[in-house]
Every structure is written in structure tokens, then in C-alpha cells.
Design a protein that fits this description.
Distance between the termini: 60 Å
Number of strands: 15
Pfam families: NUP
Function: Nucleoside permease that transports adenosine and guanosine.
Protein name: Purine nucleoside permease
Keywords: Signal, Transport
Strand content: 15-25%
InterPro entries: Nucleoside_phosphorylase_sf (IPR035994), Pur_nuclsid_perm (IPR009486)
Bound molecules: 2-acetamido-2-deoxy-beta-D-glucopyranose
CATH superfamily: Nucleoside phosphorylase domain
Largest sheet: 13 strands, mixed
CATH topology: Rossmann fold
CATH architecture: 3-Layer(aba) Sandwich
Radius of gyration: 24 Å
Number of domains: 1
CATH class: Alpha Beta
Length: about 400
């Protein structure tokens, strides 16, 4: 009896040591500190990075609690230096997945560069099917009041009105904090220079389609061949289309950023991804100066002259193939530039010369849009810890 007891005690001890060892080993082996994390939004954007000669992100698959049920894993190269994930589409999926990533104990993201790399609707005023754009500002344009157009006040150009405002051109009186994000301009310029060296794909389907835009002189870029463009991006859960909404959201972009941003692409995730990354930065887990927002044109946000808005929407995404291929054409050199220049340049970071962060000034500094910093130019976190520190003597009394 005693013998059985001692034997099981011995076995239990061995088991405990083995389990403990395995946990420790798993922890050291499975903590990744990627140099670049690629953020895709749906399967075709993710697949653009697979089967390429430069690196293989399918060498390590890591299941992350909190990821989308459709895309439960992060994918990394064997050494963990390059990783990729798929958020799932629109704002809720993007915010949830990136929050799960930022909080995951499997990753050290404090030095990681994030490359948001997706397709988008594009304005023919600035770009075309297959264009590769890099944004400094991301604006959540649909975070507004909305009337059905049949019930809107007659003098309003569309049914959209900023929240808390009584007119479409009045700055929003109620801010939720996610209206505008600004990312590192120095890093954006590096990405643009790198992408400009790439040869972009084009195809006859896109060439034939974009000719339609040549009849309107305002749509010159829409009718031209794809290129790399520095212009800003608008986020909306609603996949909208048409001249009126395009003009309305151009106006919203200008209004929300006090004239700093130039609207050119429309997508369903970026402000959500940026909000989750900003909260990660506030928690000390992410460096907000290491974010690149790249979007490639897959369809036009508005019809060509003589086409209905419905025809423009239901034709689908005529530039889909080249938009996906140009994610890779422009994106791979950006990833390899960061990884190969790690020691020489990128590990220590690219110092921004512009304000970075949200419309509240949560990361510190003062935005040149919106009401200015609501934290008096300090980080929201520092302000809170300051308040905690100040309250300590009171607690001690
Ligand atoms: C990772 O997952 C992909 C499919 O998503 C698969 O093709 C690949 O073989 C997996 N890699 C490993 C190492 O299991
Ligand atoms: C979305 O993010 C962009 C920056 O990437 C910012 O310019 C824009 O104002 C944001 N919009 C909203 C509504 O948060
Ligand atoms: C956009 O702003 C311009 C200038 O303020 C205005 O004339 C136009 O009606 C606006 N368009 C829409 C659709 O809001
Ligand atoms: C932006 O415009 C609004 C409305 O005109 C104004 O209240 C705000 O002070 C401006 N912000 C900056 C930073 O100029």
C-alpha cells in the first residue's frame, strides 16, 4: 500500500517536473517578437502573401484565442520575424482580432512594424484600379447621423450629418475618439519610396474599364495607369457607392481633419485596427509610430459619367486581381526593406516629425485636427498614473 502510494507520489513528481519544463519550454519557444506583422482583412488578401519566394509565413501557425472563427491563426516565418493575420471584414472584426493580438502573451509587439495591406474602393480623382495608396490619416466617415435621403432636409446634399451637429458642414459636436487617426509620416515616406521601385501589375480588364473615366477631366488619375499615391483613407462599415456619398465623405474627411487629409480610398476596417493598436500602445504593448496603412484600388467609389451608381456597385470589383497582386508587388519590398535594414535602421524606430495618434490626443502631443488634446498634451496613461500618484497621500491619511 505504502509502496503504491510512494510510487504514485514519485510518478506525480516526475509528471509535475515534466509538465513544468514543457510549459517553460513552450513559453520561451513560442514567444514571437516579429519585425513585421502584416494585417490582411479577408482570405484573398491573406493568400497574396503565400507561395512567394522571399519568405514563407506558413512555417509556423499559431492559434490565438480571440481571433475570428474563420481565421483563428496567426502565421509566421520559422524564426518569427515576419507574421501575418486575417482580421475578418469590417470594423468589429478588425477591432476584435487586433485587440486579441495585442493582448496575446505569445507575442512581444513592442518593436513590431504593422503593415495594414488591403484592397479598397478608390476615387478616380486620385487613383485607379491597381493603384497603391499610403495613408497618413484614417477617417471614420460614417460615424455620423444619417437620414434616408427621401426624408432628409431639402437643403442637405445627402442624408449624412456629423454627430451632435445640425448641418452637414458643422464640425461634430460629439466625438467618440475614433474619428481620425494619424500615422507616422516619415515611415509613410519610406514605404512610398520603397513601393515606387516596384513594378505594378495591370491587366486588360482594368485597362478597358478605366478608359470610361477619361471623358471627365476631373477623373484623369482614374483613367491613367496604376501608380503609387500618397492619399488618405476612409473607414465605413457600409460598402457605399455614388457621386453624392463620395462628395459627402470627401467633405467629412476634410471637416474631421480640419483640412489636413485628402480622401482617396474607402474601406471597412482601418480605423478599427488603428484604435485597437492605439489602445495597445497605451498599454505599452505596441509602438504606434510603426504603422503603415497601404490600400490598393480594386473598384471605383463612384460611377463614370453616364453610368448609374447601381451599375458601378453591381459591376463588382473590376480591378480585384491587380489590387491583390499589387499588395504583394508593393508590400513584399516594404517587408524585406524593414527586415534587412533591422540592425542599421529599423530596430530603433523611425522618429515621426508629425503628430501621431487619435483625435483626443490619447498618446500625448496635440492633434492638428479636432478640438486639440483633451489630455492637455500628455499621454492619457501618464495623466491617469499622475492622478493615482496624487491620490496616494490622500489614501494614506
Ligand atoms: C499552416 O496553415 C496553412 C493553411 O492555413 C497550411 O497550408 C500550412 O501547411 C500550415 N503550416 C504548418 C507548419 O502546419
Ligand atoms: C480613421 O483613421 C484615420 C487615420 O488612419 C484618421 O485620419 C481618421 O480620422 C479616422 N477616422 C475616424 C472616424 O476615426
Ligand atoms: C461638399 O462641400 C461643398 C463645399 O462646402 C458643398 O458645396 C457640397 O454641397 C458638399 N457636398 C456634399 C455631397 O456634401
Ligand atoms: C478644427 O475645426 C474645429 C471646427 O471649426 C475647431 O473647433 C477646432 O479648434 C479645429 N482644430 C484645430 C486643431 O485647428
Amino acid at each position: 500500500m505504502l509502496c503504491v502510494y510512494l510510487t504514485s507520489l514519485f510518478l506525480l513528481t516526475i509528471l509535475a517536473v515534466v509538465v513544468q519544463g514543457a510549459v517553460v519550454e513552450a513559453r520561451s519557444r513560442d514567444t514571437f517578437a516579429p519585425k513585421v506583422f502584416i494585417i490582411s482583412m479577408f482570405d484573398a488578401e491573406g493568400d497574396a502573401w503565400h507561395g512567394i519566394p522571399e519568405f514563407n509565413v506558413l512555417e509556423r501557425n499559431i492559434t490565438i484565442p480571440g481571433f475570428s472563427p474563420l481565421f483563428p491563426q496567426a502565421h509566421c516565418t520559422r524564426d518569427g520575424s515576419i507574421c501575418q493575420l486575417v482580421t475578418g471584414e469590417a470594423e468589429i472584426n478588425a477591432a476584435s482580432t487586433i485587440t486579441a493580438l495585442v493582448q496575446s502573451p505569445l507575442f512581444d509587439l513592442t518593436h513590431t512594424y504593422f503593415l495594414i495591406a488591403g484592397i479598397a474602393g478608390i476615387s478616380p480623382r486620385l487613383g485607379t484600379l491597381g493603384s497603391v495608396t499610403f495613408a497618413r490619416f484614417a477617417v471614420q466617415v460614417a460615424l455620423q447621423f444619417e437620414f434616408d435621403a427621401r426624408e432628409k432636409p431639402a437643403e442637405f446634399p445627402t442624408g449624412y450629418v456629423p454627430q451632435g451637429s445640425m448641418a452637414p458642414d458643422e464640425f461634430p459636436q460629439d466625438l467618440y475618439g475614433t474619428e481620425v487617426f494619424e500615422v507616422n509620416e516619415e515611415l509613410r515616406q519610406i514605404a512610398i519610396r520603397t513601393a515606387k521601385k516596384a513594378t505594378l501589375f495591370d491587366d486588360t480588364q482594368s485597362q478597358q474599364y478605366r478608359v470610361n473615366y477619361a471623358t471627365n477631366s476631373a477623373f484623369g488619375p482614374g483613367a491613367a495607369a496604376p501608380s503609387v499615391v500618397a492619399c488618405d483613407t476612409a473607414t465605413s462599415d457600409v460598402f457605399w457607392t455614388g457621386n453624392l456619398l463620395a462628395a459627402a465623405f470627401e467633405n467629412t474627411t476634410t471637416l474631421f481633419t480640419n483640412g489636413s487629409a485628402t480622401y482617396c480610398t474607402t474601406q471597412q476596417e482601418d480605423n478599427a485596427t488603428l484604435e485597437a493598436l492605439m489602445r495597445g500602445a497605451l498599454a505599452g504593448r505596441v509602438d504606434f509610430s510603426r504603422i503603415i496603412v497601404m490600400r490598393t484600388g480594386s473598384d471605383f467609389d463612384r460611377p463614370f459619367d453616364g453610368q448609374t451608381a447601381a451599375a458601378n456597385l453591381f459591376v463588382g470589383t473590376p480591378g480585384f486581381d491587380i489590387a491583390i497582386r499589387n499588395i504583394r508587388a508593393a508590400g513584399v519590398p516594404i517587408v524585406t526593406t524593414i527586415v534587412s535594414g533591422w540592425k542599421a535602421r529599423f530596430e530603433r524606430g523611425v522618429m515621426p516629425n508629425n503628430y501621431i495618434g487619435d483625435i483626443f490626443g490619447s498618446l500625448g502631443g496635440t492633434p492638428d485636427f479636432g478640438p486639440g488634446s483633451i489630455f492637455r498634451g500628455k499621454s492619457a496613461l501618464r495623466k491617469r498614473s499622475l492622478r493615482l500618484r496624487m491620490s496616494r497621500p490622500i489614501l494614506a491619511v
